[in-house]
């Protein structure tokens, strides 16, 4: 079973959407240093992941759900 590196998925999606770290930090109501910390995480609080999913319009829970069926 491979580890899901959620921080990298968030970082890659932010880049794909051509949005900045500053944009995400403003949407989350935190400073950009916290966003860089999120990028380095292997796991993340579910509530924070839900907020990020809503803000970015992407279901970041999907990789975890896919694991349930395998």
Automatic annotation (TrEMBL):
InterPro entries: Lambda_DNA-bd_dom_sf. It comes from the Bacteria. GO terms for molecular function: DNA binding. SUPFAM superfamilies: lambda repressor-like DNA-binding domains (SSF47413). Gene3D superfamilies: lambda repressor-like DNA-binding domains. This is XRE family transcriptional regulator. It comes from Duncaniella dubosii.
């Amino acid at each position: 079973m491979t580890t899901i590196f959620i921080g990298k998925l968030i970082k890659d999606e932010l880049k794909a959407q051509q949005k900045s770290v500053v944009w995400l930090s403003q949407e989350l109501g935190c400073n950009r240093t916290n966003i860089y910390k999120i990028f380095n995480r292997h796991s993340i609080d579910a509530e924070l992941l839900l907020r990020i999913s809503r803000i970015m319009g992407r279901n970041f829970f999907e990789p975890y759900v896919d694991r349930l069926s395998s």
